Structure formats: structure tokens, C-alpha cells
Amino acid sequence: MGRLCKFASFWLTNSSQECALQNMAEDFEDSIHVHLGRIRHIARRYAAGGSAEDLAQEILIRLWQSYPRFRGEAKVETWIYRVALNTAMTYLKGTIRNRRLHAAIVAKSMPTEASPVGAETDDLVAKFSSSLGDIDASVLMMYLDGLSADAISEVLGISANAINVRINWMKQKFVETYV
């Protein structure tokens, strides 16, 4: 006799282990679907040029590998940020070892001389984000996504007070530069 899994449209005739695996895969897919934009944004932030899609795939692989250990003690978005940022930072460390890639990253992060007047808000934020260090850019990204200082603190392992200080500093720097 088969077992009815999480969704009635999927019928298994084998073990409950297969049913559990199917349910886990569906839960994972639902979680990733909701946060895929964030994953891609992190990949674009940390990867140079066309390698952003490769980094996004690596993040998805690491998320899938760590999903069985996700206990739900933190929010799903916090877990996704933590895994994605750790994967991205590991990736970045590997690329920095190559001096030519390092030079390309530095050149990409340098502000251009073009005037930002009339530029779209997203373009200004992207330009500002690229002028920040990796940690500050990560804090900014999560802050703009609506995460609290406590949630950001949990992801990055930095105190909530330090997160608030960084946010205030970035606000001041943004106003000085673009307003």
C-alpha cells in the first residue's frame, strides 16, 4: 500500500522515508522561491561579471545541503542570509587570491565621476552599496529588506548595537554623498 504524502497529488508506494524526502524538497522549494530575489542580489553583490549566476547556484547548493540541519529556531530569511553570505564571502576570498580578479573588483567598486542627479533610486543605492565594504554592504542590503538590527546581528554575528551604529553611519554617508 502506498502512503499519502504532504500533497494529495503525489502518491508514493514505497517507504515513509521517500515521503519525508518529498515533503522536505517541497518545503525547501517553497522557502527558496520566496527568497530567490535576495539570493540573486547577494550573488550579484559578491560576484564579478558573469559569475553571479554561478555563485547563486553555489548558494542554492549550500542551502539544500544545510536544509536538513535547519531547525526553525531562526526565521527562514535569517538562515538563508547566513548561508548565502557565508557562501558569498568564501567565494570572494577565493577570487581575491587572484590579483587580476581582485583588481577588477576594486575597479568595479570605485565610484564613477558621472553625476547621480536624476538617476533612479535603485541605481543610487547600488552605486552607494558598491562603495561600501562587504560587511557594510550586507548590513545595508538586509536593512533595506526590512530586517531588524537583531536579525542582522544574528546573521552576521555582530552586536545589534554595532549594526545600528553602522546603519546610522551609512545614512550620514549617503546624505553627504547624494543629497
Descriptive labels:
2% strand, 8 helices, two-stranded antiparallel sheet, disordered N terminus, 2 strands, 179 residues
What does this 3D model show about the protein?
This protein has 179 residues and is mainly alpha-helical. The model is unreliable at 1-12, 98-102 and 114-119 (pLDDT under 50). The chain has helices at residues 16-46, 52-66, 76-96, 99-109, 121-130, 134-144, 149-156, 160-178; strands at residues 3-4, 11-12. Helix content is 70%, strand content 2%. The protein contains 8 helices and 2 strands. The protein starts with a strand and ends with a helix. Strand 1 (3-4) and strand 2 (11-12) form a beta hairpin. The protein has a two-stranded antiparallel ribbon with strand order 1-2. Helix 1 (16-46) crosses helix 3 (76-96), helix 6 packs across helix 8 (160-178) and helix 7 (149-156) crosses helix 8. It is globular.
In short:
The protein is mainly alpha-helical. Helix content is 70%, strand content 2%. It has helices at 16-46, 52-66, 76-96, 99-109, 121-130, 134-144, 149-156, 160-178; strands at residues 3-4, 11-12.
Mean pLDDT: 77
Q: Rough shape?
A: globular
Low-pLDDT segments: 1-12, 98-102, 114-119
The DSSP helix count reads: 8
Largest pleated sheet: 2 strands, antiparallel
